[in-house]
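Q: Could you fold this chain for me?
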Amino acid sequence: MTAIRFPEFVWLWDRQQGQSMPRLHDRIAGWLEDRWQGGDRQLLLMAFRGSGKSSLVGLFSAWLLRTDPNLRILVVAADLPLARKMVRTVKRLIERHPATRGLKPKRADQWAADQFTINRTLELRDPSMLARGIEANLTGSRADVVICDDVEVPNTCGSVPKRADLRERLGEIDYVVVPGGLQLYVGTPHSFFSIYAEKPRREIGETAPFLAGFSRLVLPALDSENRSLWPERFSVDRLERQRRHTGAAKFESQMMLNPVNIIAGRLDPDRLRLYDAELNYREALGRAALSLDGRTLVSASCWWDPAYGASAGGGDASVIAVVFADGDGCRYLHRIRYLTAEAGRPDDDEASQQCRQVAAFVQELYLPAVSLEINGLGRFLPGLLRKELARAGIGCAVVEMTSRQSKHQRIVEAFDAVLAAGALWAHRGVWDTPFVQEMRDWRPDGRFKGRDDGLDAVSGCLNAEPVRVGALARPARRADWRSGLGTFGDPGGWDL
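A: Sure. Below is the predicted structure, expressed as structure tokens.
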């Protein structure tokens, strides 16, 4: 067959359909051909909803088969019906496109709904094109081209386990595509933790983006000057109406291609104010002071929400957090630690292991007191924690607390006002813990079943009224850094 460029291939099809070729499609077609001819075999195409990207990828598949009839193309989608839709599109193109005559086989069994084999010179086990859902077993398949068409949708990325499972299944593609084969991802982001994200998500342990090294073509509906990329179909006025109708979050995700949570959450971690400073403790003339980046701290709230068994992979996590406050009312979430312990050790029980970690946490951060939630499993821990603190020579009060509100109500009351006021700062190290992911996933619903152990601990800190206190019995080697009047009683609350 005579060689034909892919933009011309698309133009011929549009002309046959009685349509003109939009500039946007010419741009996408040119990029796909240039990348293919240039030997670039890892591609990501992100274009806004309704841009026709899947139709163009179908045309690209037909063009590739025309260019080399011996190619094997595997289409992977979020579910099998969606993958079959792509295969049907390519079958129709091969049947009707003026440049693909002669490719359709004569045998009907080679022209099935979810796979087909065109006329080719090689005898190959795999068909020319095959459709598979993301949950299908891909073991044994081989392909020269793997197209991941909308593998990320709410059903595959709506929770932490689903996102982890999606990444694991997509990792199998490396064993399916032959050396030198093409991987082409096509879609729009449906989560802040999108596989298409350009930057790694530290909250889930990424050190590099999931598609690191992929060549990207990202085409949002509006460019940097607020002009539509397809003005004939998507005018600026229409896009603004769509933004108002669907909501800002969904518009940002599906039309502007910014990875955000489509489902509106109550706790937005992007409203946390990031800082890198460490605590600065100093003593002068018998007085102590504690500061962060030059701001004098006047109080601290530390909350431990204990749990057992999380280290084995199930149940709630045992979490301790500390929030400092300055004289201007700003709060600083300086540390949050998810405690682990080795169960089944006859010489060192799990509770004692955690208490030692809490004691080390208290000493490291110059804390005058730690509040311990004694609901349920925590009832016998105060005495054990006091014992570990005394053994380490740490002067710290242990305050026994009982929660009477529902957990989701405590979290709402703790975070709403301080986030709205922009008064909650968080140390950069907080992003290395599950806490930020808990914020993004949490919903203000008492039926929420996701992880919220870190949220519960920090809400305990925020709900505790910060009070400036004065003298407190502490080890002789360290003076008290807090300013103001008052003393602290143990057990009990602030004694003013």
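A (continued): The chain is about 30% helix and 20% strand.
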